[in-house]
Amino acid sequence: MINKKAGLLVGTLLVGCGGSGGGSSIDLERYTLNPYTAANASVSNASMTGTWVVVWSIINRAKGLDGAKVERETTHISRKEFVVVRSGDDGLEIATCTNGFNLLSLENNYWTTSGGSVLVIDKSNTRLSEGAVSAEYYADLVDGGQATFSTEYRANYYKVSDATGPLGGITWNWSDQEGTESDNIYCAGVNRIEGGAQRLSLGTESGSILSIGDSIEVGVPDARFQDRAGSGYKAIELTLGIGDSSFSVYDETDFGFSFNDVSIEGGDKSITLYGGVSAE
Q: Using an 8 Å Cβ cutoff, are 186 and 83 in contact?
């Protein structure tokens, strides 16, 4: 069982909203970087360190095998996220919503990350871009059969602040242990998915991650929290396959959105999480 409770607002994540998107056949309101042009023009270009806003254009493709049917052969996603680039013990590092911080290495006119990304320098140290097409992979479908999947994406990065501190914090409590744990958030974003669904994801200093969506995505759990803070490692991951999950992102402005706190219950344990971030 999973219960993602809509709770009282406890934080604000500063992420802009975009204009209408992509043609009449695509039901998607796309994010843009237009609200951040002025902020990008005012930051220091002496270093990449600072807070960055990233807009992703993602296309997921699926094809059923041996007569298997997929709900959508093509799904468009617009993602907006904030990440922090800072100086670490081993050099520059960039926050992710999937794996803590990745190291950055400069090669010619682009940066490579220890996570495998290649970031092309578009304008000094204040604008970057990347793009790729994944190899096809196979996955089982909920109602039986298999399909092949691939992803194509393009991302544009604007540096919008010279600040390198955390965007905010998150606190959580496991049902099978006393007390709470907390961590600083350095990456946070929301996917807008064609058709109106959304997915929220957060990444922390320790590499703890939260990902929660309100629709079925093949190969992606409805809810996942990986706890890498403190001693040991704990995780809760749930895939219902029936779309019985929800959360809300609301009150969007050019520089903000609000999100609800989350409770996840499954098996013999549950977890409650709350927090928020601010990129100003």
A: yes
